[in-house]
Each structure stands twice: as structure tokens, then as C-alpha cells.
Write a structure and sequence with these properties.
This protein is mainly alpha-helical. The chain has helices at about 15-20, 30-65, 70-80, 90-95; strands at about 1-5, 10.
């Protein structure tokens, strides 16, 4: 069983791994159960990310706008359109420079 995302293979479950998993999962539902588990992992991560985005941005948007979108896709696009929005990469790689005192300044 191969797991692909955007047509790129992420990993393959070997026959031995499948046998071990099938020891606990009925053979008749193995494929559907594996798909269900993978979907759960990805969707759970999405839900956690959306909750964090809402936690970080709802109060900011309330101050800036007269409305708050209820649709998740509209909300996400609205947040991402804000000039001060930074994704994880940008937050991790943007550090505000603190002017450290040097011997010359002391």
C-alpha cells in the first residue's frame, strides 16, 4: 500500500507491516480503515490549525471589520489577506532586532 500526496509517494506500507496491522484490523475493512485513519490525522491537524488561526485573529478582525465570516474558507482567505499576517515559516524566520548595548554605547 502506497501513500501519496499530490502524486508524490510519501511512504509504502510493506507486506510485513500490513500483516502486523491486519492482526488487529479485520481483513475486509483494512483498506478503508487505513484511509479513514489517514484522513483523521490530516483533518485533525486542519481543525487544530483553524482553531489556532481563529484564536489569533478573530479579535484582530473584529477591530478592523464590521463583520466576521462564518465560512472557514472565507475566514482563512480574509486572514491571509491581512498585511500583518505571517505564516509559520515567516513567524519563525522573522526576528525583531533588539538593539543590544555594545561596549561603544556604554
Amino acid at each position: 500500500m502506497k501513500v501519496l500526496v499530490d502524486d508524490q509517494e510519501l511512504f509504502t506500507i510493506t507486506e510485513t507491516q500490513k500483516k502486523v496491522i491486519k492482526n488487529d484490523i479485520n481483513l475486509n475493512i483494512f483498506d478503508s480503515d487505513m484511509k479513514r485513519r489517514l484522513e483523521f490525522i490530516v483533518m485533525n491537524r486542519y481543525k487544530q490549525g483553524l482553531a489556532r488561526l481563529k484564536s489569533d485573529w478573530e479579535s484582530v478582525l473584529r477591530e478592523r471589520l464590521d463583520y466576521m465570516p462564518l465560512d472557514a474558507e472565507v475566514f482563512v482567505e480574509l486572514v491571509k489577506s491581512q498585511q500583518d499576517y505571517k505564516d509559520k515559516y515567516d513567524r519563525d524566520n522573522t526576528s525583531e532586532q533588539i538593539d543590544e548595548p555594545t561596549e561603544e554605547k556604554l
